[in-house]
Amino acid sequence: MKKSIQRVAFKLEENSGYNADIQIVPTGIYYSNYWNFRSKLYVCFGKPLSLKDYIEDYKQDPAKTMLKLGNVLHEKISEQIINIKDLKTHDEYDFLLEVYDKYIAEKLLINNIKDLGNKIIVDKETVRMLDELKDKKPEDFNSLMDDARTYSEGLKKFKLKDWVLEKTELSNKLFRKILLLIIAVPIYIYGALNNIIPYFLPRLITKGLKDRQFESSIVYGLGIITFPIFYLLQSYIVLLLTNSFIYAGIYLISLPVFGLLAFIYSRLYVKTSAQIRFNRNKKTDGMKNLINLRERIIAKI
Q1: Buried b (16+ CB within 10 A) or exposed e, 27-48
Q2: Tell me, what's the pLDDT at 203?
Q3: Which of 43, 50, 93, 184 has the most neighbouring CB atoms within 10 Å?
Q4: Average pLDDT, stretch 16-43?
Q5: Are residues 259 and 191 in contact, defined by beta-carbon separation less than 8 angstroms?
Q6: CB atoms < 10 A from the CB of 179, how many?
Q7: What pLDDT sits at residue 2?
Q8: What angle in degrees, to the nearest 10, is found between the helix axes of 138-158 and 90-107?
């Protein structure tokens, strides 16, 4: 934990004659997806930490007290987040959070895993169990990490996600999805063509970013600007072509509505395509090996 938070807090206390009663609230932020549009954000708040308990120590030794408070803050913030301590196996942990979530949820008697609050509880328990396995049975832990890497690479080979193997669609349900995609093609074309520039322009700007953690924030910030500007420009062009405020107004209203429908369509297309690939390959040796490997991974925790 860096000293900036403690330094600012204690400086405020000093300036107020140590009567400000500064409270620091440990906060954790959790995203359902770091990059995708329409993802969910969950913010966890811990119990406020008062500086009153540290003021006397701070007067005697500021540096030592800031370090002490930093350690306490680190502990309190860690309680609010998914804390994967082992950076060497961070990717494997992160991958296994998705593989294990429904099974751990069943053990914890949690029904609605889509609720991010519940998801955090499940993920914390998964991390705890993996850490415990690492401490008590390091050979089994290393074997699990190897299996996780192999399984992840196998999924990439088939361009699939774990949920596809977990959730096998019935043929009639998959057929209904395909039929819906075919029927909705005109909606997708209209929505995509009229939103393609403001949608992709921010992504072109962020394409050269070395650190992806800033990508979603920049895309969001630019999107707030680009979408209204292009919507107004496009609607003005329609007004010039039709000489009708009514047609231009209807067109303007349709842009965000059909843009959202086009996005939903694209997500459905991606998921349905993945399920079709799985069904096409499920009898191959490679897919059978992946299914068996997944079952072995599930059985290890």
Answers
A1: ebebeeeeeeeeeeeeebebee
A2: 78
A3: 93
A4: 83
A5: yes
A6: 10
A7: 57
A8: 100
Question: Please, which pLDDT band fits residue 105 given cuts at 50, 70 and 90?
Answer: very high
Higher pLDDT, 143 or 214: 143
Count the neighbouring beta carbons within 10 Å of the beta carbon of residue 77. Answer: 18
Rounded to whole angstroms, the Cα distance separating 214 from 93 reads 22
Query: Which pLDDT belongs to residue 276?
Result: 92
Q: Which two tokens stand for residue 258?
A: 């059909």
Structure tokens at 273: 């395509």
Contacts of 48 (CB under 8 A, 6+ apart): 23, 24, 25
Neighbours of 260 (CB within 10 A): 14
**pLDDT tens by residue, 60-73:** 998 898 889 889 99
Q: Cβ(54)–Cβ(43) under 8 Å?
A: no
3-state secondary structure the chain: CCCHHHHHHHHHHHHCCCCCCCEECCEEEEECCCCCCCCCEEEEECCCEEHHHHHHHHHHCHHHHHHHHHHHHHHHHHCCCCCCCCHHHHHHHHHHHHHHHHHHHHHCCCCCCCCHHHHHHHHHHHHHHHHHHHHHCHHHHHHHHHHHHHHHHHHHHHCCCHHHHHCCCCHHHHHHHHHHHHHCHHHHHHHHHHHHHHHHHHHHHHHHCCCHHHHHHHHHHHHHHHHHHHHHHHHHHHHHHHCCHHHHHHHHHHHHHHHHHHHHHHHHHHHHHHHHHHHHHCCCHHHHHHHHHHHHHHHCC
* Residue-level pLDDT at 243: 94
**β-bridge partners, 27:** 45
pLDDT of res. 182: 97
